[in-house]
Amino acid sequence: xxxxxxxxxxxxxxxxxxxxxxxxxxxxxxxxxxxxxxxxxxxxxxxxxxxxxxxxxxxxxxxxxxxxxxxxxxxxxxxxxxxxxxxxxxxxxxxxxxxxxxxxxxxxxxxxxxxxxxxxxxxxxxxxxxxxxxxxxxxxxxxxxxxxxxxxxxxxxxxxxxxxxxxxxxxxxxxxxxxxxxxxxxxxxxxxxxxxxxxxxxxxxxxxxxxxxxxxxxxxxxxxxxxxxxxxxxxxxxxxxxxxxxxxxxxxxxxxxxxxxxxxxxxxxxxxxxxxxxxxxxxxxxxxxxxxxxxxxxxxxxxxxxxxxxxxxxxxxxxxxxxx
Length: 324
Fold this sequence. Notes:
Largest sheet: 7 strands, mixed
Order of helices and strands: EEEHEEEEEEEHHEHEHEEHEHEHEHE
Distance between the termini: 15 Å
């Protein structure tokens, strides 16, 4: 079957290890099933995999891709939940949880194998391309907002770095849920698109906000950390799920964190139940993921190059099979 996979790892030039071509059909252990992929979306996790983060040389070649929507073995339209072994389904009792592409082959292929437990019904209101955007970036944003930040309608939230998949999802989800959303971006065009998504106001990075917020959604890291801390109300929550600009901010702002009793909360992905809630939320509210561009799987390299450049707003989707 045709696939996009990591053949080598290069920390400095990750795309040199990306190859497209034929790979073996997936193994299907007892309790697992196959999904014929119709659409899959890119995440920064895929670039980190090509850099060798979370993947050893012994696991190569590894088909990339965490997210997918497609057709299961019974002909149902489904969405793949990409965390394997979260509750032990389909794996040994002592096997730690992993995300697709860390131990098991990923979704940038004509077919992917996952535990039967990892397959959810796709709402008919969502296209394959839309549904394929949800299991990583949108699920991460959903958990950041509604589980870890615990914000309620009417609360105010700052989303740093509008344009990336998680940040874009946080703006759209927050606005749909009745939050007052502020967003930042260095790019004027991305700030304008954030307003179109429902942000109440947009700012350049580091700008003073009209007032302090109840929570900050942080995926940028070092470049925006100090601004995030300074933007919070006393007792506010800073939820972090990534650090694309680096992990070591020049100022930790520890004095503000303890004096104002701020909460710093790490957030990674989400549960299967949260993904089901997200799918239902999008279907019921007419909310759709923002798709930057759609490419056939054969042009996956173009998608990787665009994501690596940062020149995007929303998700890049790869189409496979019948809908290609």
